[in-house]
Design brief:
The chain has a single domain, classed as Up-down Bundle (Growth Hormone, Chain: A). It contains 16 helices and no strands. The radius of gyration is 22 Å and the shape is globular. The two termini are 22 Å apart. By secondary structure, the protein is mostly helical. Helix content is 81%, strand content 0%.
Length: 429
């Protein structure tokens, strides 16, 4: 039922202007329509739980994976590079896949590939097989992430975007706790990836029920002002390139903090596996909490003000990581998780205001790909430096990354105001 027609019927229903039998039918129809509207979001949120679980598992499993395959500390860079290659490819291919299959079928296919990737981790006999599985996982993640970000940015509010990404934090909190329990009891790290395979299998089956209906609102009602433009036109905008760098820095800082915390605290600061695993879970739990709380208040606070405040918080958190004590380390991780929490989803939802609606889909696609590059590049670079200098170099590394992110966001806002006609502080539903 079209929204205008549904609203008209609901208005008449509340005024008692409709036949009683028709009223009953309309009530059931309205409930059904609203349920169908929520159901894809439930699946979207669950997809992000699965993505978060996968990332959270690796942070705890990495020391055990190193032992299984006899790897050096910096070998993580190869796995992250493979996953990043897949994510970038999936991000750029997702637009074509969605154009051919629709959003729902694209997500069904991506989750099926996610099952294959997770099973690859479970069965991999060699390090090369792990790399191949990482590439497959990246492809699945790229399509899922890009498709859902474009879908929610087109159809829902900044608050919904933040809450969807909060689901990632739920998964990233569950993942370390699950893997810590598995490793602590002497079981194989592969069992954690078997659990993720089960989640993606369930999602693939559930997406069958909405695959044909999960699309963009008003896709057939495009006007000259909102119709997408060629990618080459989008890439001519300086604000887009600044956004690409900003997303690279953000995911690099976040993943470096989340990925290396367990190894850093166990191998350099003398924390037990249980304590370090708990601290890692706290990081992702704070990320989840921040997205729920700050996402709900973004409209009242102001998007740009909120982003600026959170980025300052990331700088302060990175500085708190420099002292080599567990209490300050825990406080830093809490502040880091809260401060980083809303940056990615809010920047994504705010993309139309920064680049204009005609460039939104293209920009979100390249931002997602760039974020994946940063996700692999910075944590991998941190691992290479740590291998040669020591793990305590991670503190200054995060300070520099956080400061650059703050400066780059300031430049992006200034250029957006000059280069586009979009209003930066747009109202948020």
């Amino acid at each position: 039922m079209p929204p205008l027609l549904e609203n008209s019927i609901l208005n008449q229903l509340t005024r008692g202007q409709l036949d009683p039998q028709f009223q009953t039918g309309c009530m059931y129809m309205s409930i059904e329509m609203r349920a169908r509207g929520r159901y894809p979001l439930v699946l979207a949120f669950t997809c992000y739980v699965a993505l978060g679980m996968m990332g959270g598992l690796l942070s705890i499993a990495w020391p055990s994976i190193r032992v299984t395959f006899g790897l050096p500390l910096d070998a993580l860079a190869a796995l992250l590079a493979a996953a990043t290659t897949g994510v970038v490819a999936g991000s750029f291919l997702s637009a074509q896949i969605m154009a051919r299959l629709g959003v729902g079928w694209s997500l069904l296919l991506a989750n099926a590939v996610g099952v294959l990737a997770a099973i690859g981790y479970v069965l991999a006999p060699t390090w090369i097989a792990m790399i191949v599985a990482g590439l497959l996982w990246g492809l699945a993640q790229g399509v899922i992430n890009t498709s859902l970000n474009i879908y929610v940015a087109a159809n829902h509010s900044v608050r919904t975007m933040n809450w969807m990404h909060a689901s990632f934090g739920v998964g990233a909190t569950i993942g370390p706790l699950l893997m810590t329990a598995i490793v602590a009891t002497g079981l194989s790290w592969r069992l954690g990836y078997l659990a993720v395979a089960g989640v993606h299998l369930g999602l693939a089956l559930l997406f069958i029920t909405v695959a044909g209906t999960m699309n963009f609102r008003g896709a057939n009602q495009a006007t000259e002002d909102t119709r997408p433009v060629p990618m080459r036109a989008t890439l001519r905008l300086l604000v887009v390139w600044l956004s690409i760098l900003l997303f690279m820095l953000y995911t690099g800082v976040e993943t470096t903090a989340g990925q290396w915390t367990y190894t850093w605290f166990t191998e350099a600061r003398g924390a037990s596996a249980y304590v370090a695993g708990t601290i890692t879970s706290v990081f992702w739990a704070m990320s989840t909490l921040g997205r729920i709380v700050f996402g709900a208040g973004a409209a009242r606070i102001g998007i740009e003000r909120l982003l600026r405040t959170c980025m300052v918080g990331v700088v302060l958190a990175a500085l708190l990581l420099l002292p080599r004590t567990l209490p300050t380390g825990l406080a830093a991780i809490i502040l880091m998780g809260l401060s980083l929490s809303i940056i990615f989803p809010t920047l994504t939802a705010h993309t139309p205001a920064r680049v204009g609606r005609r460039h939104t889909a293209n920009t979100i696609s390249v931002q997602t790909g760039a974020a994946s590059i940063g996700l692999a590049l910075l944590p991998g670079l941190a691992g290479i430096i740590a291998q040669r200098v020591g793990l305590e170099v991670l503190g200054p590394f995060l300070v520099v990354g956080a400061a650059l992110m703050l400066l780059l966001n300031t430049a992006t806002v200034a250029v957006a105001r000059r280069e586009t006609t979009a209003v930066v502080e747009t109202p948020v539903n």
